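--- STAGE predict ---
source: upstream dedup step, 1 unique chain passed
mode: sequence only
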Amino acid sequence: MPRLTKYQFRKAHEIARDFGTIFIYVSKDDELDTHKLIARLLKTHVVVVPKILPGKRLAACRITSLEELREGPFGILEPRTCTPVPKKTIDLFFIPGTAFDEHGGRKGRGAGYFDRYLATMKGRRPIVGLCSTHMLKKRLETRPWDVPVDALLLEHECKVISQPLGRPRSSRVDATRGCRAKTTR
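--- STAGE serialize ---
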């Protein structure tokens, strides 16, 4: 499992600093390893992680420790039990992908769990993709239901694509300090 770089770890924590409830994926196989970041965020934030429910649905479940996680469908660690946290109470989303593009396009594993879950949150809360340079493509073929990310957190830089990552319910805080805005060509 590839590790987050020191920059990604530090920057993710800096972005999360001014938010209360953080949604973050629990990494699997070739995804960037989020376990240490989750452990760090648990000390200062309310942390929610995805859990797969019947009917190809995804729920956000609060955890207080990584020990609460057990292997679920597809070999992904998830909480054993879950009382779903309402999406509207989540302030920031860190999500995985198998590939991303410079315009915020994201490819997952093909089942659409994150796209369905995030469909009503686009533009309401920041969505950040954790990404390695080798996962970044010029342009991905996306479909109308694919939910793009607002920023990409790469090994040595953060690229803001669509919206500032400041706290949504208060005056804008510059959590994107050091993040480069997308340039139009």
